[in-house]
Design brief:
Elements: H1 3-18, H2 25-28, H3 42-56, E1 58-60, E2 67-69, E3 71-74, H4 83-90, H5 97-114, H6 116-134, E4 145-152, H7 159-173, E5 177-182, H8 186-201, E6 223-224, E7 230-234, E8 240-244, H9 256-260, E9 266-270, H10 274-285, H11 289-292, E10 297-302, H12 322-332, E11 336-343, E12 370-373, E13 380-381, H13 383-386, H14 391-395, E14 396-398, H15 403-409, H16 414-435, E15 440-445, H17 450-472, H18 477-501, H19 511-524, E16 525-530, E17 547-552, H20 554-557, E18 565-570, H21 577-582, E19 588-589, E20 598-601, H22 603-627, E21 660-661, E22 669-672, H23 681-701, E23 704-706, E24 712-715, E25 719-720, H24 721-729, H25 737-740, H26 747-759, E26 765-771, E27 783-785, E28 788-790, E29 797-798, E30 831-837, E31 855-856, E32 869-876, E33 887-888
Parallel strand pairs: 4-11, 4-12, 5-9, 5-10, 6-9, 10-11, 14-20, 15-17, 15-18, 16-17, 18-20, 26-30
Antiparallel strand pairs: 1-2, 3-12, 7-8, 13-19, 21-33, 22-32, 23-24, 24-26, 25-26, 27-28, 29-31, 30-32
Helix pairs in contact: 1-3, 5-6, 5-7, 6-7, 10-12, 16-18, 16-19, 17-18, 24-26
Length: 889
């Protein structure tokens, strides 16, 4: 770069550091050099942009307006920088052949879906993210290396697109043998094979009516030792048998030695199956070590927490689990190799025992070279968006577990029928939004048992047939219309609220239009049973309308993509973090139909997902925190601590690796009273009076200030920590674990933690605030509390079987109410928030048929005396001495 561009780059880096929140990349690139008054030309802009993104370790979001973080933890002692120099010398159509072909293909394909501007942003985002990954891999020109890394993405967030681009760039740079480990099911292996063939090799084995990339020139043609071919045959009984002929088999491939002397790359898409991996290892072993030195190996492990993790790490006398052993044996055949695991649920991967040794094998697959946490992509509909504000209230329809009833009676159940009706309405709305030829799907996940899938598929198919018959019948048509009108009324109420929450403007057709369209939807609906025992296939290569109700289990849990997923009926509980989060197929891209997405599940399962949303965010925050630590932390020193849950396990017991239970820590945490003893007026009154005396005592000594007239009254002086603990927190009546069945605020451990921190001279100086509304609302009135004029807040609650749960008590603006804009919370300075909740708080949602988890008035069906309620929140700073928490190595 010339002097002007270098100077502008330096200025932009400083401007970003000073105001990252408002940094607009496109606008900043128009900056004029203060010395010469000149701006950047298009070539200079691209150079400055790349250098800027590399310098600040951020990447561009799809909307081009913000920069969002890519968290990277590396071990610089084990790595020599090489890619930046290589890229600058080889960024052209000849030397970056495979990536440039893919880049052009993606621009064309995505432009037809999202328009050229959005397509360009998406492709740039993939480019930048994969540059960050490949730059942490070993230089394939080196003589000997063994690299292991982990990429943490999001469920259904485009990990395949990321690793496909990584493969293209790796092959350009010199990696010659690519092995993709793609799940444990044949259908997932074939899905990945077709995707990579479509975007990289150009080989269309099945003559699919899809737009494949053109095949490379002969000199660059891929050597595939697996394909996407199928054999379909019919039995005497008329049943179709589908066999994956593309899976690895030694019969139809050239000797591995012959691939070692070819200039073009070799590709294998392999199922994570011991027999298949043994066959592959035996086949490769027939070549010589000298031959294999010419083949730098890159293993991409999709869903790296599934089957790959050593399940016997807790038993030093036992052999590693067989799949893990096979992967390590495969790597051991090569002197130049790299392993990159991709997962959205890294719970097991970060608990792998990094100190295992076996003379026969490679070191275990712990990502000792790098861990990269990808940012949440623009337009992604995941836990962060779902649990923002009140969105989950409209997104989830809590139901009773009627799975056993369905299995016992072989008949349609109440809540499943409502879910199917919603799906038909949603499909009709999308048809009217001009999405008619885009895939639309519904997930039904009750059990992992295939015989249950078959039963449920038959029940649903029969129900759909009955609906069509009733629609066509003059006798039953109007009755059916009224049934759908009732479902549509509530469904659209929630859709409009979701649109408000996400600031989306979408076409909302009236019921008459929808009712006319439902007949068309019913005529094309397919009900598919997707498991290893069924011949049903989900084929997105078909032209025309594809509207599917997918019934299944394990295949739907991991990897298999349900495009256009809108309605999920989900009753299969799991007690493992990784399994439960992976089974949430409702996460993904929902552009243009976020408002139509619903999940029908039990209160217990949804409570678990709420907890997992917090855990997932904490893991990413931990990676980011370690990245920023001084001195830098390496992956081998990384000790991610995973928040424990009383009902759930982090992962299966045999994947816990080196995990140990740690002392409970509340460092850098928000703790609030979700659960309240509404049917125990003596406790409510005691808490109310305790808070009144506590606030009055502070008010008499120091006074309070209504911060920015927000209704939040902040004490003018900080309060001694021992006094807060002994005079208030230790006397406050928290609801017991027995009343809630386990979840809730663990007051015993929380108070013990505060006591320990006080002994180490932390949490000594508390900010205290009484939270109310800025103005009275509705029938609510101003009250005098602790000598202050306060407008009580309103909080409805969830309709639950046990105890009383109001959900989130706090609001984001309250958590730093005592700090200046750029101030961070000192270890000595926690914040205590007291919330005065109006006893007549009501829900804004009117529902005739209440179900678990729906919002109701605060004291709905509580037969004891109504009393204004005092809820509390305790915001604790990061501890200097007790940061580690929960479970880790």
């Amino acid at each position: 770069m010339d002097t002007i561009a270098e100077r502008i780059l330096g200025i932009l880096i400083e401007r970003f550091k000073n105001n990252s929140e408002n940094f607009n990349l496109e606008r900043e690139l128009e900056f004029k050099d203060p010395v010469t008054g000149k701006g950047l030309d298009e070539k200079q802009k691209e150079l400055v942009k790349r250098r800027l993104l590399d310098e600040i370790k951020y990447k561009e979001s799809y909307d081009g307006a913000r920069l969002i973080p890519v968290s990277v933890i590396t071990d610089p002692r084990l790595h020599e920088e090489w890619y930046k120099e290589w890229y600058e010398e080889n960024n052209d159509e000849v030397n970056s052949y495979y990536w440039k072909r893919l880049e052009n293909y993606l621009r064309a394909e995505l432009s037809s879906k999202y328009g050229p501007v959005n397509a360009g942003r998406i492709v740039r985002s993939i480019d930048e993210a994969t540059n960050g990954i490949i730059s942490k891999l070993a230089d394939p020109r080196r003589e000997n290396f063994s690299y292991k890394g982990l990429v943490v993405g999001y469920v259904q967030s485009g990990k395949t697109a990321n690793f496909t681009a990584l493969i293209g760039k790796a092959v350009d740079a010199g990696y010659k043998f690519i092995v993709v480990l793609s799940g444990i099911h044949s259908v997932l292996r074939r899905q990945t094979q077709i995707r990579i063939d479509k975007e990289l090799t150009g080989m269309n084995d099945l003559d699919l009516q899809q737009n494949f990339i053109s095949e490379p020139s002969d000199a660059k043609r891929w050597n595939r030792i697996t394909t996407g071919r199928l054999r379909v045959r019919r039995t005497r009984t008329g049943q179709f048998i589908v066999r994956d002929l593309g899976e690895f088999d030694t019969i139809n491939v050239d000797p591995f030695k012959s691939y070692c002397i070819r200039a073009s790359p070799t590709l294998a898409i392999i199922k994570k199956n011991v027999k298949v991996l043994e066959k592959l290892i035996g086949y490769i072993s027939q070549s010589s070590e000298e031959d294999r030195t010419k083949m730098p190996l890159l293993i991409i492990d999709d869903e790296a927490d599934q089957a790959s993790v050593d399940g016997n790490a807790n038993d030093p006398d036992s052999d590693p689990t067989r799949t893990n052993e096979m992967i390590r044996l495969l790597m051991g055949l090569f002197s130049r190799k790299a392993y990159v695991g991709y997962t959205a649920t890294p719970f097991a991967n970060t608990l792998i025992d990094m100190n295992t040794e076996d003379d026969r094998l490679e070191d275990d697959l712990y990502p000792r070279n790098f861990i990269i946490s990808l940012p949440e992509p623009e337009g992604y509909f995941g836990t962060r968006k779902i649990f923002q504000g009140d969105l989950s209230e409209y997104f989830v329809d809590p139901i009773e577990d009627e799975g056993l009833l369905l299995i016992q009676t072989n008949e349609m159940t109440e809540y499943l029928s409502i879910a199917i009706d919603q799906f038909l309405i949603a499909c009709s709305i999308r048809n009217l939004r001009e999405d008619k030829n885009k895939p639309m799907s519904m997930l039904v996940h009750i059990s992992h048992l295939t015989n249950v899938h078959n039963l449920v598929q038959r029940v649903i198919s029969e129900y759909v047939d009955i609906l069509m018959g009733r629609y066509k019948s003059a006798i039953t048509h109007e009755e059916l219309m009224n049934q759908f009108k009732e479902t549509w009324d509530q469904y659209m109420q929630d859709s409009l609220r979701i649109q408000d929450e996400i600031s989306s403007e979408l076409l909302n057709p009236g019921f008459d239009e929808i009712w006319n369209e439902i007949k068309n939807v019913l005529s094309v609906i397919q009900v598919l049973e997707l498991n290893s025992s069924s011949d049903d296939r989900l084929d997105y290569s078909e032209t025309g309308e594809l509207k599917v109700i997918a019934v299944g289990g394990n295949q739907l849990s991991r990897g298999l993509t349900l495009e256009g997923l809108m309605i999920s009926y989900y009753l299969r509980d799991s007690r493992q973090y990784d399994t439960l989060l992976q089974m949430g197929r409702w996460f993904g891209y929902r552009m243009g139909y976020e408002d139509l997405t619903r999940v029908h599940t039990t209160e217990t399962i949804w409570d678990s997902f709420e907890h997992l949303a917090l855990v997932e965010d904490e893991i990413r925050s931990e990676i980011y925190r370690y990245e920023e630590s001084d001195p830098p932390v390496t992956p081998a020193e990384l000790a991610i601590a995973i928040r424990a849950h009383r009902r759930l396990n982090i992962t299966s017991r045999n994947k816990m690796g080196a995990a140990r239970l740690r002392q409970s820590s509340y460092s850098d945490s928000l703790n609030q009273t979700h659960w309240l003893p509404l049917d125990q007026p003596e406790l409510l009154r005691a808490n109310f009076n305790l808070g009144n005396s506590f606030i009055k005592d502070i008010n008499d000594k120091y006074g309070f200030t209504n911060v920015r007239d927000s209704g939040v009254h902040l004490a003018n002086e900080r309060i001694n920590g021992e006094k807060v603990l002994t005079h208030f927190l230790a006397r406050y009546n928290f609801i017991s674990k027995e009343r809630t069945g386990g979840p809730g605020l663990d007051s015993e451990n929380l108070l013990a933690y505060i006591y320990r921190r006080l002994n180490d001279e932390e949490l000594t100086s508390w900010s205290v605030a009484l939270v109310g509304n800025a103005n009275p609302r509705g029938e609510n009135r101003t009250v005098r509390y602790g000598g202050l004029e306060v407008n009580p807040i309103q909080r409805s609650r969830k309709y639950t079987e046990r105890s009383y749960n109001i959900g989130v008590l706090t609001e984001p603006d309250h958590l730093n109410i005592d700090l200046d804009e750029d101030e961070t919370r000192d270890p000595s300075n926690p914040l205590l928030l007291l919330y005065l909740i109006w006893k007549d708080s009501r829900t804004t949602r009117t529902v005739e048929n209440l179900r678990h988890g729906m919002r109701v008035d605060l004291f709905y069906e509580v037969e004891t005396e109504k009393i204004d309620v005092l809820g509390i929140a305790v915001i604790l700073p990061k501890s200097r001495f007790e940061r580690d928490s929960y479970i880790g190595q």
